[in-house]
Amino acid sequence: MGNDYLCIPKKITLINHYRGSSSCYHYAVTEMERLLNRSGVKIEKVNKELSEVYFSLQLSVSGTVSKIPEVHGKKMGKDAYRITVSKAELTISSPSAKGILNGTYDLAERLGYLFLYPGLGGEWAPTYDQLATLFIGDEIINPRFPYRGIFWEGKNAGDFTDEEWLRFYAKLRFNALRHEMDDLSLAEELGLRLEVGGHDLSKLIAREHFRENPEWYRMVQPTDFNGQRSNDLNYCVTNEEARTEVKRRFRHELGLLKGIYAIHKWADDLPGGGWCFSPTSRALSPSDQSMLAMRSLVEVIEEENSPLRISVLAYHDTLFPGTQIDVSKGCFLLFAPRERCYGHALDNPSCKRNRVYSEALRAWMHKFEGVDDAHTFEYYFDQILFRGIYPFLPTIIIADMYLYEERKIECHMSLQVGGPSIAPDYNMLLFAKSHWDRNITAELYIENLAKRIAPGQSTPWCNYLTKRGQIYEQALLTCDHDLKIYFDYRWLPETTTDFGKIIAQGYEKASIRMNDNANCLKEAISPEWSTQLCELAEREIRRTRFEAAELHVMYLQQSAMNKFGSFLNTREVEHAQEGVKLLKQTIVAQKHAVEKGIEAGLPCDSYYFTLVEHMLRPDFEEKIKIYSSIFDN
């Protein structure tokens, strides 16, 4: 039995086999030393510097150098790595420095580390006595997508610094990031390909030029409807002077962007409209107008001999590609299915809503045939979309990944707005893990995570996480909502269809089940649990009670919208009266949910509080005022 595995001794030699200057490789060496030291292993470092072509890092029991396993370039994808374990040493080898860093964190997890959230507090380290043994063998570990990562909106990012977040992304073996230029050197050290930008297209036309050059700006109505122009959003993409101005301003901006991969210059964030009906633009769909705008930016990049790429966003009214304007090879697809159903996988045949999004992806991939690096822009960690709560969607994330892999997506990324200040974001942990394991299932992931969180006492955690996923996958069903009607989990719709009743009941059922789930975890807390585990459980319970309270708000909110929909359909005043009564109850329930959010530890600047104070409550009060005036008179 002793010949079948390697036990890490209390003293081991770390042999550096690379003579280059890669900051990412040297960070990997530093991290290997830090992590082993933290678990009570003393490191002696030796620099052999045998290669500047490939990367290798070796842990030797005897202190001697053994033959380094070959790096098979054809068998190893982007940032892949090879882990070779014998009785005497462990070797991580890779064609890239990032591969060594990935292998370092993989090894740490194999030894017993758990990376739960940013900062040292989220890095659960095993003691020396808890270090796992490593089975003898040789394994090449390839990612499913060449690039994997986060579109990170740094505002309201919780209790962690930018640096802590980026270092956490590296621990999760991500290698793609949309963030800010200020963190470029850190991103390079961590092996994160950096992209910048967002909804910035309209900023390339200064609003103050509207008076003297109104033709630069979009025509919001065709000529036969007065041809009114607006300087609020996007511009007239077919106007030559506007095009020249956009290129001029972008050229200046481009000079400040060195060392990044791509820039995003999306149109304004609208569910519909925002484009131009001028005589030269009105025959072009929103997607064609967007493509023209992006191609103008690509022209500047080509003229300046820049390697920068430009994204073409498929989103809202550009969900399907246009038919008139061709793709430029300087662009890449960015598929953002924001209004999809998150209660079903994207390719679930029973979900008619997601069938449309799946078909849209197929159409865009056909449009971009021959143009590489198609991105996803998923929303699994988006606090805005999910109104400040933290849904757990394990089966959805895993099933989606198979579809995106099948459709030849090369860069699988998800938006993060906000962060897990009050508990881990289990979606992010699963998203990261699934990029490296094609055989993962929701059940297996939850079971393994529960065992890591609570070794020997994992059953309550396994039950809790399983129920959490089941509750949310039922609560977030939107497959029967009419696609022609905008849907958002914040602005729940007035409707007369059965959909409105079903989702209202679903929110209330989810609220009750969520509270029950918190109770079960509370009852499971044992004196045998470590302080660290008890603290995590208490945070998790408070978060779950907050989410239960907010789901109850959603139940009352949707119930009120159903009554208003019935009033609009029948003009029966009692429906308006019932709706007002329910909406007043919603405001009271929302105050309770805010209290639960504060108890849970939501930061005062979290998106949830902003949503309640500045958007939802004023919206509710305005509806109450409008509908009350009907029956008061």
Description:
Helices cover 42% and strands 15% of the residues. The protein is an alpha/beta fold. The chain folds into four domains: 5-141, Chitobiase, domain 2 (2-Layer Sandwich); 143-194 and 338-440, no CATH class; 199-335, no CATH class; 490-632, no CATH class. Helix 8 (394-406) runs parallel beside helix 9 (426-434) and helix 12 (498-524) packs antiparallel against helix 13 (531-570). The mean pLDDT is 93.
Overall SS class: alpha/beta
- Uncertain regions: pLDDT < 50 for 5+ in a row? none
Number of domains: 4
Strand tally is 19
Number of helices: 15
The radius of gyration computed from the alpha-carbon positions, rounded to a whole number of angstroms, is: 27 Å
Shape: globular
Brief summary of the model shown:
This protein has helices spanning 23-38, 97-111, 162-171, 184-189, 240-254, 286-303, 352-367, 394-406, 426-434, 442-453, 459-475, 498-524, 531-570, 573-600, 607-632; strands at residues 5-6, 11-18, 42-51, 55-60, 81-85, 89-94, 114-115, 123-124, 134-135, 137-141, 147-153, 176-178, 193-198, 262-265, 309-314, 331-335, 375-376, 378-382, 411-417. The chain is α/β, with parallel strands linked by helices and 633 residues long. It has four domains: 5-141, Chitobiase, domain 2 (2-Layer Sandwich); 143-194 and 338-440, no CATH class; 199-335, no CATH class; 490-632, no CATH class.
